[in-house]
Specification:
Length: about 350
Protein backbone atom coordinates (compact mmCIF):
# COMPACT_ATOMS: atom_id res chain seq x y z
CA UNK A 1 0.00 0.00 0.00
CA UNK A 2 1.21 3.50 -0.76
CA UNK A 3 0.05 7.04 0.04
CA UNK A 4 0.36 9.70 -2.64
CA UNK A 5 0.13 13.46 -2.10
CA UNK A 6 0.16 16.31 -4.55
CA UNK A 7 -0.13 20.04 -3.92
CA UNK A 8 -2.27 22.03 -6.33
CA UNK A 9 -0.38 25.34 -6.39
CA UNK A 10 -3.20 27.17 -8.17
CA UNK A 11 -5.75 26.62 -5.40
CA UNK A 12 -3.42 26.07 -2.48
CA UNK A 13 -5.28 22.90 -1.58
CA UNK A 14 -3.59 19.62 -0.66
CA UNK A 15 -5.21 16.63 -2.32
CA UNK A 16 -4.62 13.23 -0.75
CA UNK A 17 -5.19 9.78 -2.20
CA UNK A 18 -5.35 7.24 0.59
CA UNK A 19 -4.88 3.48 0.41
CA UNK A 20 -3.94 3.47 -3.28
CA UNK A 21 -2.43 0.32 -4.73
CA UNK A 22 0.09 0.95 -7.49
CA UNK A 23 -0.09 -1.63 -10.21
CA UNK A 24 2.67 -1.55 -12.80
CA UNK A 25 2.41 -2.48 -16.47
CA UNK A 26 -1.34 -1.94 -16.80
CA UNK A 27 -2.94 0.04 -19.63
CA UNK A 28 -3.50 3.69 -18.86
CA UNK A 29 -7.24 3.32 -19.45
CA UNK A 30 -7.88 0.81 -16.66
CA UNK A 31 -9.36 1.43 -13.19
CA UNK A 32 -8.06 4.96 -12.70
CA UNK A 33 -9.66 6.17 -15.91
CA UNK A 34 -13.00 4.64 -14.99
CA UNK A 35 -12.76 6.28 -11.58
CA UNK A 36 -11.93 9.66 -13.10
CA UNK A 37 -14.91 9.30 -15.40
CA UNK A 38 -17.17 8.73 -12.44
CA UNK A 39 -15.67 11.68 -10.62
CA UNK A 40 -16.16 13.99 -13.58
CA UNK A 41 -19.81 13.11 -13.71
CA UNK A 42 -20.11 13.89 -10.01
CA UNK A 43 -18.51 17.33 -9.84
CA UNK A 44 -16.10 19.37 -11.94
CA UNK A 45 -14.24 20.46 -8.81
CA UNK A 46 -13.32 16.88 -8.01
CA UNK A 47 -12.18 16.31 -11.58
CA UNK A 48 -9.90 19.31 -11.46
CA UNK A 49 -8.32 17.95 -8.31
CA UNK A 50 -7.70 14.36 -9.38
CA UNK A 51 -6.64 14.83 -13.01
CA UNK A 52 -3.11 16.15 -12.30
CA UNK A 53 -2.45 13.13 -10.09
CA UNK A 54 -3.70 10.70 -12.71
CA UNK A 55 -1.64 12.39 -15.40
CA UNK A 56 1.53 12.07 -13.36
CA UNK A 57 0.95 8.37 -12.70
CA UNK A 58 0.04 7.46 -16.26
CA UNK A 59 2.95 9.43 -17.68
CA UNK A 60 5.22 7.20 -15.61
CA UNK A 61 3.68 4.10 -17.15
CA UNK A 62 1.67 3.34 -14.06
CA UNK A 63 -2.00 3.16 -13.31
CA UNK A 64 -3.90 3.10 -10.06
CA UNK A 65 -6.72 0.94 -8.74
CA UNK A 66 -8.52 2.83 -6.02
CA UNK A 67 -10.31 0.75 -3.42
CA UNK A 68 -13.78 1.64 -2.13
CA UNK A 69 -12.44 3.37 0.96
CA UNK A 70 -10.85 6.06 -1.18
CA UNK A 71 -13.97 7.98 -2.18
CA UNK A 72 -15.28 9.05 1.25
CA UNK A 73 -11.83 10.27 2.33
CA UNK A 74 -11.16 12.44 -0.72
CA UNK A 75 -12.04 16.02 0.27
CA UNK A 76 -12.64 17.31 -3.26
CA UNK A 77 -15.54 14.88 -3.69
CA UNK A 78 -17.72 16.86 -1.27
CA UNK A 79 -20.45 18.32 -3.46
CA UNK A 80 -20.63 22.06 -2.85
CA UNK A 81 -24.08 23.60 -2.86
CA UNK A 82 -24.76 27.03 -4.32
CA UNK A 83 -27.02 29.31 -2.26
CA UNK A 84 -28.66 32.11 -4.20
CA UNK A 85 -30.53 35.13 -2.84
CA UNK A 86 -32.53 37.29 -5.22
CA UNK A 87 -35.48 39.64 -5.34
CA UNK A 88 -37.18 42.02 -7.72
CA UNK A 89 -40.01 44.50 -7.32
CA UNK A 90 -42.29 43.98 -10.32
CA UNK A 91 -46.04 43.53 -10.79
CA UNK A 92 -47.05 39.86 -10.76
CA UNK A 93 -50.67 38.88 -11.35
CA UNK A 94 -50.65 35.12 -12.01
CA UNK A 95 -49.48 34.09 -8.56
CA UNK A 96 -51.34 30.78 -8.27
CA UNK A 97 -50.02 29.60 -11.62
CA UNK A 98 -46.50 30.71 -10.73
CA UNK A 99 -46.60 28.93 -7.39
CA UNK A 100 -47.44 25.61 -9.04
CA UNK A 101 -44.74 26.04 -11.66
CA UNK A 102 -42.03 27.06 -9.21
CA UNK A 103 -42.85 24.27 -6.77
CA UNK A 104 -42.82 21.64 -9.53
CA UNK A 105 -39.50 22.75 -11.01
CA UNK A 106 -37.77 23.09 -7.64
CA UNK A 107 -38.92 19.62 -6.64
CA UNK A 108 -37.73 18.21 -9.95
CA UNK A 109 -34.28 19.79 -9.53
CA UNK A 110 -33.97 18.82 -5.87
CA UNK A 111 -33.70 22.44 -4.73
CA UNK A 112 -34.51 23.60 -1.21
CA UNK A 113 -35.31 27.02 0.16
CA UNK A 114 -38.09 29.59 0.02
CA UNK A 115 -39.70 31.52 -2.82
CA UNK A 116 -42.14 34.30 -1.96
CA UNK A 117 -44.52 35.46 -4.69
CA UNK A 118 -46.40 38.73 -4.15
CA UNK A 119 -48.32 41.25 -6.23
CA UNK A 120 -45.34 43.61 -5.82
CA UNK A 121 -42.64 41.11 -6.85
CA UNK A 122 -40.58 38.05 -5.97
CA UNK A 123 -38.13 37.16 -3.23
CA UNK A 124 -36.17 33.92 -3.11
CA UNK A 125 -33.46 32.04 -1.28
CA UNK A 126 -32.74 28.72 -2.98
CA UNK A 127 -29.98 26.16 -2.52
CA UNK A 128 -28.72 23.20 -4.55
CA UNK A 129 -25.93 21.83 -6.78
CA UNK A 130 -24.50 24.17 -9.40
CA UNK A 131 -26.12 22.50 -12.41
CA UNK A 132 -29.56 22.56 -10.79
CA UNK A 133 -29.18 26.21 -9.75
CA UNK A 134 -28.08 27.22 -13.25
CA UNK A 135 -31.09 25.46 -14.80
CA UNK A 136 -33.40 27.08 -12.28
CA UNK A 137 -32.08 30.60 -12.90
CA UNK A 138 -32.26 30.17 -16.67
CA UNK A 139 -35.90 29.15 -16.31
CA UNK A 140 -36.75 32.03 -13.97
CA UNK A 141 -35.17 34.59 -16.30
CA UNK A 142 -37.08 33.20 -19.27
CA UNK A 143 -40.05 35.12 -17.80
CA UNK A 144 -39.78 38.56 -19.46
CA UNK A 145 -40.75 40.23 -16.18
CA UNK A 146 -37.70 38.68 -14.49
CA UNK A 147 -35.25 38.70 -17.39
CA UNK A 148 -32.94 41.14 -15.59
CA UNK A 149 -33.12 39.41 -12.18
CA UNK A 150 -29.83 39.67 -10.31
CA UNK A 151 -28.72 37.39 -7.50
CA UNK A 152 -26.01 36.88 -4.91
CA UNK A 153 -24.23 33.58 -4.32
CA UNK A 154 -22.53 31.78 -1.46
CA UNK A 155 -21.32 28.20 -1.09
CA UNK A 156 -21.89 25.57 1.58
CA UNK A 157 -21.27 21.85 2.11
CA UNK A 158 -24.98 21.18 2.50
CA UNK A 159 -28.19 22.82 1.39
CA UNK A 160 -29.09 25.88 3.41
CA UNK A 161 -32.73 24.84 3.95
CA UNK A 162 -34.38 21.58 4.90
CA UNK A 163 -37.33 21.78 2.51
CA UNK A 164 -38.70 23.72 -0.46
CA UNK A 165 -41.54 26.20 0.08
CA UNK A 166 -43.22 28.45 -2.48
CA UNK A 167 -45.63 30.88 -0.85
CA UNK A 168 -47.95 33.68 -1.88
CA UNK A 169 -47.89 36.80 0.33
CA UNK A 170 -49.20 40.36 0.20
CA UNK A 171 -45.75 41.98 0.36
CA UNK A 172 -42.18 40.87 -0.30
CA UNK A 173 -41.33 42.22 3.13
CA UNK A 174 -44.12 43.43 5.42
CA UNK A 175 -44.05 47.21 5.92
CA UNK A 176 -47.79 47.97 5.73
CA UNK A 177 -47.17 51.03 3.55
CA UNK A 178 -49.26 50.36 0.42
CA UNK A 179 -48.27 53.64 -1.25
CA UNK A 180 -44.67 52.47 -1.55
CA UNK A 181 -44.18 50.92 -4.98
CA UNK A 182 -40.46 50.28 -5.63
CA UNK A 183 -41.16 49.09 -9.18
CA UNK A 184 -42.21 52.64 -10.10
CA UNK A 185 -38.80 53.98 -9.17
CA UNK A 186 -36.05 53.17 -6.72
CA UNK A 187 -34.42 55.45 -4.23
CA UNK A 188 -30.81 56.27 -5.14
CA UNK A 189 -28.44 53.42 -4.36
CA UNK A 190 -24.77 53.41 -3.45
CA UNK A 191 -22.43 50.65 -4.61
CA UNK A 192 -20.43 48.78 -1.94
CA UNK A 193 -17.06 50.06 -3.14
CA UNK A 194 -18.34 53.64 -3.23
CA UNK A 195 -19.73 53.28 0.28
CA UNK A 196 -16.38 51.99 1.53
CA UNK A 197 -14.71 55.08 0.06
CA UNK A 198 -17.27 57.34 1.73
CA UNK A 199 -16.72 55.63 5.07
CA UNK A 200 -12.94 55.81 4.63
CA UNK A 201 -13.10 59.57 4.15
CA UNK A 202 -16.02 60.21 6.53
CA UNK A 203 -18.27 61.95 3.99
CA UNK A 204 -19.83 61.50 0.57
CA UNK A 205 -18.52 62.95 -2.68
CA UNK A 206 -20.16 66.29 -1.89
CA UNK A 207 -18.48 66.51 1.49
CA UNK A 208 -21.67 65.72 3.44
CA UNK A 209 -21.25 63.51 6.56
CA UNK A 210 -22.46 59.93 6.04
CA UNK A 211 -24.69 58.15 8.55
CA UNK A 212 -25.43 54.41 8.34
CA UNK A 213 -28.97 53.37 9.32
CA UNK A 214 -30.12 49.87 10.25
CA UNK A 215 -33.43 48.57 8.89
CA UNK A 216 -33.09 45.08 10.39
CA UNK A 217 -34.55 43.66 13.58
CA UNK A 218 -32.64 44.08 16.83
CA UNK A 219 -31.68 40.40 17.17
CA UNK A 220 -30.09 40.50 13.70
CA UNK A 221 -28.15 43.64 14.53
CA UNK A 222 -26.71 41.98 17.63
CA UNK A 223 -24.86 39.49 15.43
CA UNK A 224 -23.03 42.25 13.57
CA UNK A 225 -23.47 45.64 11.91
CA UNK A 226 -21.58 48.60 10.45
CA UNK A 227 -19.53 50.67 12.82
CA UNK A 228 -21.21 53.78 14.27
CA UNK A 229 -24.58 52.88 12.79
CA UNK A 230 -28.00 54.14 13.84
CA UNK A 231 -29.89 51.21 15.36
CA UNK A 232 -33.43 51.95 16.51
CA UNK A 233 -33.87 48.46 18.03
CA UNK A 234 -37.01 47.58 16.10
CA UNK A 235 -38.54 44.14 16.56
CA UNK A 236 -40.17 43.99 13.13
CA UNK A 237 -39.86 45.96 9.91
CA UNK A 238 -43.40 47.34 10.12
CA UNK A 239 -42.16 49.47 13.07
CA UNK A 240 -39.61 51.25 10.90
CA UNK A 241 -41.85 53.96 9.33
CA UNK A 242 -42.94 55.42 12.68
CA UNK A 243 -39.44 55.31 14.16
CA UNK A 244 -37.74 56.97 11.21
CA UNK A 245 -40.42 59.70 11.14
CA UNK A 246 -39.61 60.63 14.75
CA UNK A 247 -35.87 61.03 14.06
CA UNK A 248 -36.06 62.94 10.79
CA UNK A 249 -35.03 66.33 12.17
CA UNK A 250 -31.91 64.84 13.79
CA UNK A 251 -30.56 63.83 10.38
CA UNK A 252 -30.92 67.08 8.48
CA UNK A 253 -27.77 68.01 6.62
CA UNK A 254 -26.48 64.42 6.54
CA UNK A 255 -26.38 61.66 3.94
CA UNK A 256 -28.23 58.61 5.27
CA UNK A 257 -27.44 55.14 3.88
CA UNK A 258 -29.98 52.46 4.76
CA UNK A 259 -28.89 48.83 4.71
CA UNK A 260 -30.14 45.32 5.42
CA UNK A 261 -29.11 41.74 4.66
CA UNK A 262 -29.75 41.54 0.93
CA UNK A 263 -31.34 44.82 -0.16
CA UNK A 264 -35.11 44.37 0.14
CA UNK A 265 -35.80 46.18 3.40
CA UNK A 266 -33.36 49.01 2.79
CA UNK A 267 -34.87 49.59 -0.67
CA UNK A 268 -38.37 50.00 0.76
CA UNK A 269 -37.00 52.01 3.68
CA UNK A 270 -35.19 54.51 1.46
CA UNK A 271 -38.28 55.09 -0.70
CA UNK A 272 -40.39 55.73 2.40
CA UNK A 273 -37.80 58.14 3.77
CA UNK A 274 -37.84 60.08 0.51
CA UNK A 275 -41.64 60.22 0.64
CA UNK A 276 -41.63 61.77 4.13
CA UNK A 277 -39.03 64.42 3.34
CA UNK A 278 -35.52 63.05 3.83
CA UNK A 279 -33.31 65.01 1.43
CA UNK A 280 -30.25 62.78 1.10
CA UNK A 281 -30.98 59.08 1.47
CA UNK A 282 -29.43 56.08 -0.28
CA UNK A 283 -29.85 52.33 -0.08
CA UNK A 284 -26.81 50.06 0.03
CA UNK A 285 -27.03 48.21 -3.27
CA UNK A 286 -27.31 44.47 -2.59
CA UNK A 287 -27.19 44.90 1.17
CA UNK A 288 -24.59 43.55 3.57
CA UNK A 289 -24.02 40.33 1.62
CA UNK A 290 -23.02 42.18 -1.55
CA UNK A 291 -20.81 44.48 0.53
CA UNK A 292 -19.06 41.40 1.95
CA UNK A 293 -18.69 39.96 -1.55
CA UNK A 294 -17.19 43.09 -3.10
CA UNK A 295 -15.44 44.80 -0.19
CA UNK A 296 -15.07 42.40 2.74
CA UNK A 297 -15.44 43.44 6.35
CA UNK A 298 -14.06 46.99 6.30
CA UNK A 299 -16.07 49.27 8.60
CA UNK A 300 -18.18 46.29 9.71
CA UNK A 301 -18.08 44.67 13.15
CA UNK A 302 -19.15 41.05 13.57
CA UNK A 303 -21.06 38.75 11.21
CA UNK A 304 -24.30 38.94 9.25
CA UNK A 305 -27.39 37.08 10.40
CA UNK A 306 -29.10 35.00 7.70
CA UNK A 307 -32.46 33.24 7.83
CA UNK A 308 -31.33 29.66 7.27
CA UNK A 309 -29.54 26.88 9.13
CA UNK A 310 -26.18 28.69 8.87
CA UNK A 311 -27.50 31.48 11.16
CA UNK A 312 -24.60 33.85 10.40
CA UNK A 313 -21.96 34.50 7.72
CA UNK A 314 -18.64 36.21 8.23
CA UNK A 315 -17.27 38.84 5.80
CA UNK A 316 -15.79 36.00 3.72
CA UNK A 317 -19.36 34.68 3.32
CA UNK A 318 -18.45 31.61 5.37
CA UNK A 319 -20.79 30.11 7.99
CA UNK A 320 -19.79 30.86 11.58
CA UNK A 321 -20.28 29.00 14.87
CA UNK A 322 -23.19 31.26 15.85
CA UNK A 323 -26.48 29.35 16.21
CA UNK A 324 -30.13 29.99 17.04
CA UNK A 325 -31.71 28.56 20.16
CA UNK A 326 -34.27 25.89 19.28
CA UNK A 327 -36.51 26.95 22.17
CA UNK A 328 -36.58 30.76 22.12
CA UNK A 329 -35.04 31.42 18.66
CA UNK A 330 -32.51 33.87 20.13
CA UNK A 331 -29.06 34.12 18.56
CA UNK A 332 -26.43 32.28 20.63
CA UNK A 333 -22.78 33.21 20.12
CA UNK A 334 -19.92 30.71 20.51
CA UNK A 335 -19.08 32.25 23.91
CA UNK A 336 -22.70 31.95 25.07
CA UNK A 337 -22.70 28.30 24.00
CA UNK A 338 -20.15 27.65 26.77
CA UNK A 339 -22.65 28.66 29.45
CA UNK A 340 -24.27 25.87 31.50
CA UNK A 341 -27.69 27.17 30.45
CA UNK A 342 -26.98 26.22 26.84
CA UNK A 343 -28.32 22.76 26.03
CA UNK A 344 -28.48 21.91 22.33
CA UNK A 345 -32.08 21.75 21.17
CA UNK A 346 -33.47 22.69 24.61
CA UNK A 347 -32.33 25.99 26.12
CA UNK A 348 -29.82 28.85 26.12
CA UNK A 349 -28.76 31.78 28.36
CA UNK A 350 -31.49 33.93 26.79
CA UNK A 351 -34.11 31.41 27.90
CA UNK A 352 -32.85 31.73 31.47
CA UNK A 353 -33.07 35.55 31.30
CA UNK A 354 -36.57 35.65 29.91
Amino acid sequence: MSRLCRTNRDSGALWRIRHATIIAAQPADSAIDQKIGAVSRTTSAATAAIMPIAAKMTSSGLSCSIIAGFLPSFPALTIMHVNIAAYKFVSLDNLDEMRSQYQALCNELGLKGTVLLTPEGINMFVSGPREAIDRYLAWVRSDARLADLEWKESLSNEQSHRRMLVRIKKEIITMRMPLIKPELGRAPSVAPKTLKRWLDQGHDDDGVPVVMMETRNAFEVDVGTFENTLDYRIDKFSEFPDVVEKHKDELKGKTVVTFCTGGIRCEKAAIHMQNIGYDRVYQLDGGILKYFEEVGGDHYAGDCFVFDYRTALNPKLEPTETVQCFACRAVVTPRQQLAPEYVVGKSCPHCAEG
